[in-house]
Specification:
Number of domains: 2
Helix content: 25-40%
Largest sheet: 6 strands, mixed
Structural class: alpha/beta
CATH class of the largest domain: Alpha Beta
InterPro entries: PRTase-like (IPR029057), PRTase_dom (IPR000836), Pur/Pyrimidine_PRTase (IPR050118), PuR_N (IPR015265), PurR_Bsub (IPR010078), WH-like_DNA-bd_sf (IPR036388), WH_DNA-bd_sf (IPR036390)
CATH architecture of the largest domain: 3-Layer(aba) Sandwich
Strand order of the largest sheet: 6-5-9-10-11-12
Keywords: DNA-binding, Transcription, Transcription regulation
Subunit structure: Homodimer.
Radius of gyration: 21 Å
Family: Belongs to the purine/pyrimidine phosphoribosyltransferase family. PurR subfamily.
Pfam family, one: Pribosyltran
Order of helices and strands: HHHEEHEEHHEHEEEEHEEE
Length: 272
């Protein structure tokens, strides 16, 4: 192949690493790809690290050793995080989003890729200390958010179903009580989806009383795995005592008035 210029290498390196956050690439991989010495690749990586750090886009980590390499860790600055959460709060407070029962229409935002990519990176940054092995959610609306969180962590996503599918083989099922409607419902998880001893981070779009999250926690423990944390995009302020503890919510829904069409929803800002 023709000799690759530095500018071309830097552009390609940035694209490859940004497309797969946290994935550990070996220097040999890039050396072979571009036909360049490892020392040259290291110089390119240094230039990328300086640029991404300067603009608050993320950082490049170097892992030493025979099995080491380099990886891109996306970062969302406190200023950008607060701006995004404020934007989401404003959009969710729009009067025509109110659904009977005190709920909000959120699907259009949840299925907007560039928004969920950033929210997933925010979850990763705030919860990476938990070092999960898997991201888990329940069908259906929380899937885009959980999927983008899994992407930011470079981890597989597992989806709990409300009922079982014969195409997924044998499954573990439990009954749980919805905290908001007090109805008994069923959720299931294929036995082969989650190995015993795995550390699981639960991600969902909305929490009211926490019944669904409690069901997922119980289901994870039923298959011998462990829940290390729970993250939700929106949680209601009431009831204050949820059926789960130690969860992270990015937005708090304080009140929805169906008559005045006023919604009180507030972001959990990093500056507070």
């Amino acid at each position: 192949m023709d000799k690759v210029r530095k500018m071309e290498r830097v552009a390609a390196l940035t694209k490859i690493m940004a497309d797969r956050p946290r994935y550990l690439f070996s220097l040999s991989y890039f050396s072979d790809l571009f036909g360049a010495a490892k020392s040259t690749i290291c110089e390119d990586i240094t230039a990328i690290k300086e640029a991404t750090g300067h603009f608050g886009l993320g950082t490049i980590e170097t892992v030493a050793g025979a099995a080491g390499g380099i990886r891109f860790i996306p970062r969302v600055s406190a200023k950008e995080t607060d701006a995004l959460l404020n934007e989401l709060a404003l959009r969710l407070a729009e009067p025509d989003r109110i659904i009977p029962g005190g709920f909000l229409y959120m699907s259009d935002l949840l299925f907007t890729p560039h928004l969920m990519v950033k929210v997933g990176e925010i979850f990763m940054e705030r919860l990476e200390r938990l070092a999960p092995d898997y991201i888990l959610t329940v069908e259906t609306k929380g899937i885009p958010l959980a999927f983008m969180t899994a992407r930011a962590f470079d981890l597989p996503l597992i989806t709990v179903r409300r009922g079982s599918k014969v195409t997924e083989g044998s499954a573990v099922s439990i009954n749980y009580v919805s905290g908001s409607s007090k109805r008994i419902q069923t959720m299931s998880l294929p036995k082969r989806a989650l190995p015993a001893g795995a550390k699981v981070l639960i991600i969902d779009d909305f929490m009211k009383a926490g019944g669904t999250a409690r069901g997922m926690v119980d289901l994870v423990y039923e298959v011998g795995a462990k829940v290390v944390g729970i993250g939700v995009l929106v949680a209601t302020a009431e009831p204050e005592d949820k059926l789960v503890e130690d969860y992270l919510s990015l937005l708090i829904l304080h009140d929805v008035d169906e008559h005045t069409k006023i919604t009180d929803i507030r972001p959990v800002l990093t500056s507070v």
